[in-house]
């Protein structure tokens, strides 16, 4: 089986100290949840997947995505979408420009504008294109961040406690939206979280570090 | 005691600029002791000077190109290499170069790039030339060597300012998002991090632009001669024994101000244009030639650091050279003869220089700590406008207000060491403030609350807790202040009316003479005078806090 994201005997060391060991296969559309106390290396694992492990850390083992070995690929070539707890919209750009930033290269100007408009409409944010991202509510910003990631057509999604800053009602709603979209796009998801409810909503396997 | 200090500081910064400009405008329109009656005569004389178009063009070109160059290389190196071992190596190489005074750096650079310099000696060795090539490299008519020298010297400054600004823009997570969306390192950084960083360093960039257009020290050493840059010509008129030329100098200074104002306006327009182009670029989704730009960034930054370091090495070698004929790469023998010949005078002048620097820095430090403490105790902040006051003396061309400061000479305040020190404070204070304000405001005020609970007065908290805990940043701010003062050329020259000699005025004066051994000794002297305080600023806290683990910064 070459589909999905494979972590084969991945071990990460901080200096000489072993930090974590993980062995997992995430098929398309499935969510692998990773939980653990702070300092257990959850974020380091995501950095390793992204390919920008900080100096001082070493990793062994194999990472493959859709059968392709990821090791040695720079972050921009891995096509792994990343969502943090903050939406991290670029504050100097409008909402539409933030989405345009996520679009893969190609297509003419009109086509690109149309895709951005469609993405906004897709999450009920029609007409929000020219807005300053700082004027969006937390839920709106989270939706823009998700669409920005999806427009880049990621081959997998990495979620770093993405719902922890949203209040309860919004959290359920955003959680459902993100998981539905990942399932619809048939891409594997790795979710790093503190929140058991995230794991339950994700419905996939759980690894505790 | 503390309350009036913020206002006093604003007066110290803005007063000299305003008085100085008044003192420049009056003679320019024919008024005052050197004027010949109200009229535009001085301006006509400036406009009649045949060198004016070229002088203005070279001033503006060298300023704009050096700013674009230093900003571009700093951005490329941050975009392409931040977080790598290469970047840390470059940062370590460039940081100490920040302290090297402009004059010493320019003199060293001249030793490297002159037709008889180190670079020309390489082909000369290979091809067997016995005389230097007949090329006008130094002091070329279009100011290209001046521009190159300014780029090399301003690069460390802009790079460190941009590094400090990075913390405000969450660049790590921003870059992680950017790259996960498929953008390359350089293109992604330019699209997402640069706009945020630039917004923070906009004023320092403008300081570099104004300094590039109006400096006198570097332009005297590396810039063209006939005609020189506009500021150099204004200074020549100013120092001419013919007093009638003072009003021409004043009019020339105002022409310089007009040129600077127009260039700044164009720069602001160009910023808007770049922002619009950047938006179009983001919509297009296009990237950049990553590998080429990364290689370009690291080679240009490396070259620039290497050129300055080679210049310093050349200064040191010339100060020790016995005989050093043209194509040879190193002197025949080393001797201390030049040091015993020029050393004693240099050291005496270094004493004056450091005394002026220490006084100006101490005065600045008192004002700065006073302002910051007033802000802490009474919430007296002037907000964003305060920043403009800090930058005011750095954004108005020095030639435009320094000569005018001698206006109070009518009131019996003549040129001399006192006025020079006061003038240095105007330029030292902004840097001391910018360097100390961050750590001062970041100090954990819960400690003050705990101490107050123990019955300590605010003064006791300041003297016994806050300042001792901030020893390292205070000393760093002092080192920066001393380095800035040691580098001041024009304020010393004009406010001292040629009677106050410092390492800066002597080093620039020697440049014209061409005695390389003397230049070596004085150049090394000026560099050491600026660098030594930094060594102390690192060593003293390490020594004082050797048994206090939490106080030793890594």
Strand and helix layout:
The complex is a heterodimer of chains A (209) and B (554).
Chain A: E1 5-14, E2 17-26, E3 31-35, H1 42-50, E4 57-65, E5 68-69, H2 75-78, E6 80-83, H3 95-102, H4 109-122, H5 138-151, E7 156-160, H6 168-184, E8 189-193, H7 196-202, E9 206-208
Parallel strand pairs in A: 3-8, 3-9, 6-7, 7-8
Antiparallel strand pairs in A: 1-2, 1-4, 4-5
Chain B: H1 5-28, H2 41-48, H3 52-81, H4 85-94, H5 102-113, H6 118-127, H7 144-166, H8 171-180, H9 185-214, H10 217-222, H11 230-239, H12 245-284, H13 290-320, H14 337-378, H15 384-395, H16 398-401, H17 417-442, H18 446-453, H19 458-469, H20 471-487, H21 490-495, H22 503-513, H23 516-544
Helix pairs in contact in B: 1-12, 1-14, 1-15, 2-12, 3-7, 3-9, 3-13, 4-13, 5-7, 5-13, 5-23, 7-9, 7-13, 8-9, 9-12, 9-15, 11-12, 13-23, 14-17, 14-20, 14-23, 15-17, 17-20, 18-19, 20-23, 22-23
What is the CA-based Rg of chain A, rounded? 17 Å
Q: What overall geometry of chain B do the principal axes of the alpha carbons give?
A: globular
Determine the structural class of chain A based on helices, strands and strand pairing. Answer: alpha/beta
Domain count of chain B, please report it: 2
Largest sheet of chain A: 5 strands, parallel
Mean pLDDT score of chain A, rounded? Answer: 91
| Helix and strand element order of chain B | HHHHHHHHHHHHHHHHHHHHHHH
Number of strands of chain B: 0
Which fold name is given in CATH as the topology of the largest domain in chain B?
A: MetI-like fold
User: In CATH, what is the homologous superfamily of the largest domain in chain B?
Assistant: MetI-like
Largest interface: A-B, 36 and 28 residues
CATH class of the largest domain in chain B: Mainly Alpha
What is the percent of helical residues of chain A? Answer: 25-40%
Give me the Rg of chain B, rounded: 24 Å
Lateral arrangement of strands in the main beta sheet of chain A? 6-7-8-3-9
Helix-strand makeup class of chain B: mainly alpha
Assign the CATH superfamily of chain A.
Answer: P-loop containing nucleotide triphosphate hydrolases
**In the CATH scheme, what's the topology name of chain A?**
Rossmann fold
Order of helices and strands of chain A: EEEHEEHEHHHEHEHE
Mean pLDDT of chain B: 91
The CATH class designation of chain A is Alpha Beta
């Amino acid at each position: 089986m070459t589909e999905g994201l494979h972590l084969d005997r991945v071990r990460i060391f901080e200096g000489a100290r072993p930090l974590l060991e993980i062995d997992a296969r995430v098929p398309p559309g499935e969510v692998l949840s990773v939980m653990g106390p702070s300092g257990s290396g959850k974020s380091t694992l995501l950095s390793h997947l992204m390919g920008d492990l900080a100096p001082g850390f070493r990793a062994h083992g194999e990472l493959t995505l859709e059968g392709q070995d990821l090791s040695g690929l720079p972050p921009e070539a891995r096509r792994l979408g990343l969502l943090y707890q903050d939406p991290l919209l670029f504050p100097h750009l409008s909402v539409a420009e933030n989405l345009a930033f996520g679009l893969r290269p190609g297509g003419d100007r009109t086509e690109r504008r149309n895709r951005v408009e469609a993405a906004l409409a897709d999450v009920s944010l029609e007409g929000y294109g020219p807005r300053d991202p700082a004027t969006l509510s937390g839920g709106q910003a989270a939706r823009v961040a998700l669409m920005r990631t999806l427009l880049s057509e990621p081959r997998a999604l990495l979620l770093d406690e993405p719902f922890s800053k949203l209040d309860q009602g919004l959290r359920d709603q955003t959680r459902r939206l993100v998981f539905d979209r990942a399932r619809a796009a048939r891409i594997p998801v790795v979710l790093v979280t503190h929140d058991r409810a995230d794991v339950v909503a994700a419905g996939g396997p759980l690894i505790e570090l | 005691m503390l309350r009036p200090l913020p206002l006093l500081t604003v007066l110290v910064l803005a007063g000299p600029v305003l008085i100085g400009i008044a003192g420049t405008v009056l003679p320019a329109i024919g008024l005052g002791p050197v004027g010949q009656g109200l009229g535009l005569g001085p301006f006509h004389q400036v406009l009649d000077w045949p060198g004016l178009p070229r002088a203005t063009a070279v001033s503006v070109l060298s300023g704009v190109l050096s700013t674009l160059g230093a900003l571009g290389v700093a951005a490329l190196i941050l975009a392409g290499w931040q977080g790598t071992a290469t970047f840390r190596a470059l940062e370590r190489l460039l940081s100490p170069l920040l302290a090297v005074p402009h004059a010493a750096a320019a003199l060293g650079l001249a030793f490297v790039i002159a037709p008889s310099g180190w670079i020309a000696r390489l082909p000369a060795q290979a091809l067997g030339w016995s005389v230097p090539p007949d090329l006008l490299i130094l002091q070329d008519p279009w100011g290209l060597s001046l521009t190159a020298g300014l780029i090399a010297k301003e690069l460390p400054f802009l790079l460190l300012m941009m590094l400090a600004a990075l913390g405000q823009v969450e660049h790590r997570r921003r870059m992680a998002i950017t790259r996960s969306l498929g953008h390359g390192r350089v293109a992604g950084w330019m699209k997402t991090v640069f706009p945020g960083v630039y917004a923070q360093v906009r004023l320092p960039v403008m300081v570099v632009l104004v300094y590039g257009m109006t400096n006198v020290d570097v332009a005297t050493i590396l810039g063209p001669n006939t005609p020189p840059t506009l500021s150099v010509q204004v200074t020549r008129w100013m120092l001419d024994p013919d007093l009638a030329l003072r009003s021409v100098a004043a009019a020339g200074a105002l022409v310089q101000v007009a040129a600077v104002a127009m260039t700044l306006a164009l720069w602001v327009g160009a910023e808007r244009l770049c922002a619009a182009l950047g938006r179009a670029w983001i919509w297009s989704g296009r990237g950049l030639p990553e590998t080429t730009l990364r290689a370009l960034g690291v080679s240009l930054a490396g070259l620039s650091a290497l050129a300055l370091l080679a210049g310093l090495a050349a200064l040191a070698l010339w100060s020790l050279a016995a005989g050093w004929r043209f194509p040879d790469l190193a002197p025949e023998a080393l001797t201390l003869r030049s040091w015993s010949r020029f050393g004693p005078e240099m050291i005496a002048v270094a004493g004056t220089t450091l005394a002026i620097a220490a006084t100006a820095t101490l005065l600045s430090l008192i004002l700065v700590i006073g302002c910051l403490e007033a802000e802490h105790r009474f919430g007296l902040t002037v907000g964003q406008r305060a920043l403009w006051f800090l930058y005011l003396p750095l954004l108005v061309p020095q030639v435009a207000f320094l000569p005018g400061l001698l206006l109070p000479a009518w009131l019996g305040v003549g040129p001399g060491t006192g006025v020079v020190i006061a003038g240095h404070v105007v330029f030292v204070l902004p840097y001391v403030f910018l360097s100390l304000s961050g750590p001062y405001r970041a100090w954990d005020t819960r400690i003050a609350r705990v101490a107050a609970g123990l019955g300590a007065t605010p003064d006791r908290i300041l003297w016994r807790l806050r300042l001792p805990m901030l020893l390292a940043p205070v000393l760093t701010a002092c080192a920066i202040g001393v380095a800035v003062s040691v580098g001041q050329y024009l304020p010393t020259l004009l406010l001292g009316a040629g009677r106050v000699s410092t390492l800066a005025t002597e080093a620039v004066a020697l440049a014209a003479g061409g005695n390389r051994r003397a230049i070596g000794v004085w150049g090394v002297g000026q560099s050491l005078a600026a660098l030594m305080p930094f060594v102390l600023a690192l060593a003293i806290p390490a020594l004082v806090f050797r048994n206090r683990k939490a106080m030793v910064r890594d």
